[in-house]
Design brief:
Elements (H helix, E strand, L loop, with lengths): L1 H27 L3 H6 L7 E7 L3 E3 L7 E9 L5 E9 L5 H6 E6 L13 E4 L13 E2 L4 E10 L1 H4 L6 E12 L3 E6 L3 E5 L6 E8 L3 E7 L10 E6 L5 E7 L3 E6 L8 E11 L13 E8 L2 E8 L2
């Protein structure tokens, strides 16, 4: 008789334990009956990122980039959620630290985050989710509003840098059963003015040289740029402003004051409040020779 009662008693004890502690106890008890009720097949989630988070920030303006992170519990168990930010290879850590990240939930996602939003930076590997997105019942979903913004004052020093990121959401039942979904990647960069292109030097009779170059390929259409022709010591030899696609200057007389071979390069600057500066153009070599204070002569030197 005692043996015949062991089966029902064990079933009652197991039912009492599972009923009292829910999914967490089920995850802790590695038994066949537990696997049938809470398993990796019934713990599932999705995460989808939409909107305009892929963006290029400029030095003269830094409007927020916005998107929506939709999290859905597609399994059969209630889930507690955490969020992770993953930066792609080659991403600028310095830029990620300067990009503000704001997360909130509400009736609609605009460009202005409410005061209750979670505030951090894109460099945070584990940003906090808004309260309403931290737990979801089976079949439930939530839209998390996402806004990022780069302080315009931080843009110029970070010109040309970029960061690629993805969000990963993890749903948990207790500590043993987890499910993770990762969003598509988005890239944010800081506008960097390209270098002036195709620099060339030709003789300009009778005793000068003409230096020419092309405007940066990524300048804004019709924008007027300031160009400086500088030497190795960053001393400005010539300076001009133009919106033309190709430019040139003639060097002669006392434009360069010392004899010898001089390394010259073109630096372009956007004429905006912040003034994004281009990278240096390839070097042009020019030789200046003079006899006394007269007969000054310039020559193009092949590299």
């Amino acid at each position: 008789m005692i043996r015949r009662l062991l089966g029902p008693i064990a079933a009652i004890v197991t039912l009492a334990v599972l009923g009292g502690a829910g999914g967490a106890t089920a995850a802790w008890m590695a038994s066949a009956s537990m696997a049938a009720s809470v398993s990796s097949a019934t713990v599932a989630t999705t995460a989808q990122l939409t909107g305009g988070l892929t963006t290029t920030y400029r030095a003269d303006t830094s409007a927020p980039a916005t998107g929506q992170l939709t999290i859905a519990n597609t399994g059969g168990a209630p889930l507690s959620y955490t969020l992770a930010t993953q930066l792609g290879a080659g991403s600028s850590a310095a830029l990620a630290e300067k990009i503000a990240l704001r997360l909130w939930t509400g009736s609609g996602c605009g460009t202005t985050a409410p005061s209750t939003a979670e505030n951090t930076t894109l460099a945070n590997a584990a940003p906090a989710l808004p309260t309403a997105a931290r737990t979801l019942a089976p079949g439930a979903s939530v839209v998390v509003c996402v806004a990022t913004q780069l302080d315009a004052q931080s843009a110029s020093p970070l010109a040309g840098q970029a960061v690629t990121a993805t969000f990963a959401v993890t749903g948990l039942v207790g500590t043993s059963w987890t499910t993770t979904a990762t969003t598509a990647a988005f890239t944010q960069s800081v506008h960097g003015l390209a270098a002036a292109g195709a620099p060339a030097c030709v003789q300009a009779p009778p005793h000068g040289v003409q230096l020419s170059w092309a405007a940066p390929t990524n300048r804004s259409a019709g924008a007027t740029l300031q160009y400086r022709l500088v030497d190795k010591a960053n001393v400005v030899v010539k300076e001009l402003s133009s919106s033309a696609a190709t430019l040139s200057v003639v060097l002669g007389g006392t434009d360069i004051t010392a004899d010898g071979v001089h390394e010259l390069r073109i630096v372009a600057t956007e004429k905006t409040a912040a003034g994004t500066v281009s990278s240096d153009s390839p070097t042009l070599l020019v030789r200046r020779t003079a006899v006394g204070n007269s007969n000054i002569k310039y020559e193009c030197v092949m590299p």
